[in-house]
Structure formats: structure tokens, C-alpha cells
Inverse folding.
């Protein structure tokens, strides 16, 4: 993998799929018993951004991000699903298994059509994304949906060098923060997700890394962060180790951080239903870094939250209280 690769040079590699065969059905599936209830919109299998650690496509031995299969009839299926389930509280996560603002989903027009369906039916939804400001037809739809939607901007790596190594086709960190500013200027609710926070050797020291991450969001006007340390399968850990290549300290730290003899694991369901084991990083690192992140964020007037399973892991069931008092869920979504 080439660390000099420029995400702007990236061209989508997309298969158009017609009909509904092979499409992910809409469910309110939850990975852990603590996840809050939302319905998933998954119009694609695969993701252009190709993150080396992806919890959906990179946890097996062979990565399966591309070509991205986009189901072009998905918006009709969604409209039908909404009409048949009007008695339910339909809040959506658009799209947990890909990125709604990624090139394949935008260039096929599927994201635009889904935004129209959600807006026409007045359904609430949130969208986690590593995108910058999307092209005008999508941006206009996001503005139109601002009473219904929340954008959650994802960025947790220390700097552009690690971004290029581990999120090779995704927009730069600064482009993502520009999306944050755009949302603020246009009244679109916005929060951040520090995912993944990856405390391995970096060009910054450990404290500076945390400060840098918080500052990038603060400068974009974002006042809440959901913080997540990676859970990794061992195959994925080893692939990341190879991706960071010459950084021997980073490789060493990754093996130490994800030691299957010492780390807790969670059973994880991949697209297609296969189950794998993902390992949390060492408990003491999770606890120390989340606590430090919360303190630093508070100094900037920001709140943080994390997964309820992680709160259990670190023995701090009050970790999300400040966020909860603002009406925010573990992922920072305002109910
Ligand atoms: S943007 Fe999200 S879904 Fe896409 S490859 Fe990265 S982690 Fe996976």
C-alpha cells in the first residue's frame, strides 16, 4: 500500500445490481445487546473507502471491499418497507455497512433517491461518514433533511500519514472537518465519532495525539464525540501491521495492544452472517485513554460517549452520563 496515494485520485469500482436478489434486508439488528434500536439502510455490499481495519469487510483473511455492489432498486424497497411499517418507530442508520457519501453510492444516484424517500416520509436518520462536502445535488438534499437527520463525522487516526495507510481511498481528515463546518453553517445537526482511536506509535506523542483529535473537531464546531478503540480480528490485526510497514514501533505496539492471551473478545456478525472473534485492545489502555479523552474534551466544553459494552469493560457505567444528559445515545445520536 502506498502512503503517498492521494484519495482525490480514487475512482469508484462499482457493480450495478438490479432487482432485490442478494440485497440486505432492512432490520433493526444490533451487534450487542446494549445497542439502541434503529433500522439499518444497506444499499451496497462493500465500500469504496477500503479501510484496512473495517469492521464489516476487513475482519476476514481476505478483504472484501471492492468492487462495490450497489443495489439500484434499494430506494423502492425502502419506500415499500416504510409504507408497510408505518405503525413502528422507524429511525434509520444510513448506512452502517458502507458510506452513504462514498462515490459508488452517489454516482449511481442511490444515495440521492434514499434521501428523497426519507425526507418525503419524514423519517429520522443518522449517517456516519468519512466524506468531505458532497457534490451539490447531495448537499442540497442534506440541507432539506436537516430537521430529520444527523451527520456523524468519523475521524480518529493521528494524522494524514496514518489516514493514507489505513483509510486509503477516504477523503483527508481536513476534508471531513470541512463537511462538519458546512453542516454547522447550514443547520444540519452534527457530531463526531473518533473511530478508530488507535494508540500505537505515531508521529505525535500519546497525549498530543488525543489533543490533536479533539482540537480538529473543536475547530469544526463539533461539541460531541463518540470515542471508539478498534476491535480487531487477528487476521485484521496482522494486515494492519503489514500496512503500517516500515513503522516497526507501530507494529510492535499493535501486537502488544491486541494480545489474544490478555484481551477480551466479542463475537461479531459480518455481512452474510458469518461470525468471527474481534478483540478489544488491552483493558488498561482502553480505560486510561478514554478517561484522558473525556477530561481533555471537557476542557474544550465538549462531551464524549462510548459503547455501553466498553463502559462495562472499563468498569465505568457513568462514562456516558454527560452525553446522556444532553439526550445523546452512545453513538452521539440525538434522539
Ligand atoms: S468507511 Fe466505514 S464501511 Fe467503509 S471501509 Fe471504512 S470502516 Fe468500512
Amino acid at each position: 500500500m502506498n502512503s503517498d496515494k492521494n484519495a482525490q485520485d480514487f475512482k469508484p469500482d462499482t457493480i450495478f445490481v438490479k432487482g432485490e436478489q442478494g440485497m440486505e434486508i432492512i432490520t433493526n439488528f444490533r451487534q450487542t445487546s446494549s445497542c439502541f434500536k434503529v433500522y439499518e439502510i444497506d444499499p451496497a455490499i462493500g465500500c469504496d473507502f477500503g479501510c484496512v481495519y473495517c469492521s464489516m469487510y476487513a475482519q476476514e483473511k481476505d478483504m472484501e471491499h471492492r468492487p462495490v455492489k450497489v443495489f439500484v432498486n434499494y430506494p423502492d424497497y425502502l419506500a415499500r418497507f416504510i409504507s408497510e411499517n408505518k405503525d413502528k418507530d422507524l429511525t434509520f442508520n444510513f448506512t452502517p455497512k458502507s458510506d452513504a457519501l462514498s462515490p459508488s453510492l452517489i454516482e449511481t444516484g442511490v444515495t440521492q433517491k434514499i434521501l428523497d424517500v426519507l425526507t418525503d416520509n419524514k423519517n429520522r436518520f443518522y449517517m456516519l461518514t468519512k466524506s468531505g462536502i458532497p457534490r451539490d445535488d447531495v448537499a442540497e438534499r442534506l440541507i432539506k433533511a436537516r430537521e430529520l437527520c444527523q451527520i456523524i463525522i468519523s475521524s480518529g487516526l493521528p494524522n494524514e500519514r496514518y489516514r493514507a495507510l489505513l483509510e486509503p481511498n477516504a477523503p483527508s481528515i481536513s476534508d471531513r472537518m470541512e463537511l462538519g463546518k458546512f453542516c454547522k453553517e447550514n443547520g444540519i445537526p452534527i457530531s463526531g465519532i473518533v473511530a478508530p482511536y488507535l494508540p500505537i506509535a505515531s508521529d505525535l506523542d500519546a497525549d498530543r495525539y488525543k489533543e490533536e483529535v479533539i482540537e480538529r473537531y473543536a475547530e469544526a464546531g463539533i461539541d460531541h464525540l463518540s470515542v471508539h478503540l478498534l476491535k480487531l480480528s487477528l487476521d485484521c490485526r496482522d494486515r494492519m501491521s503489514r500496512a503500517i510497514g516500515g513503522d516497526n514501533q507501530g507494529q510492535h505496539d499493535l501486537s502488544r495492544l491486541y494480545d489474544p492471551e490478555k484481551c477480551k473478545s466479542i463475537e461479531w456478525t459480518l455481512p452474510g452472517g458469518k461470525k468471527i472473534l474481534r478483540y478489544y485492545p488491552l483493558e488498561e489502555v482502553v480505560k486510561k485513554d478514554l478517561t484522558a479523552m473525556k477530561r481533555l474534551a471537557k476542557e474544550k466544553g465538549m462531551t464524549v460517549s462510548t459503547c455501553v459494552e466498553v463502559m462495562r469493560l472499563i468498569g465505568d457505567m457513568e462514562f456516558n452520563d454527560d452525553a446522556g444528559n444532553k439526550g445523546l445515545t452512545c453513538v452521539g445520536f440525538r434522539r
Notes: The chain has one domain: 7-325. The pocket of iron/sulfur cluster is lined by residues 47, 49-51, 54, 56-57, 65, 98-99, 130 (CB under 6 Å).
